[in-house]
Amino acid sequence: MDNKDFLIYSKCCFCIPLRFGLLTWAYVKLALIVVVTYLMVNIIKQVTSNSEVWHISALLVLLFVELCLTVMFIIAGHKYYNSTSYFY
Hints:
mainly alpha
């Protein structure tokens, strides 16, 4: 396969530079995760049924994993080192 077969994207949503667009998307996602987590914790405080608390707790664990991945993505986005360029 030739190197010319790969698509190279330089813009996010065809208007802003890719790196800043992805960082913006990551920060918006981070804010939404924090808001949803806050709302779910408030729901857990109000719910008295054990089965509903178990389901919401499982969702909170998944949100925590998503939060960790988003933070890692933001840290990687702020680093300017491009390690993927070595493969091309």
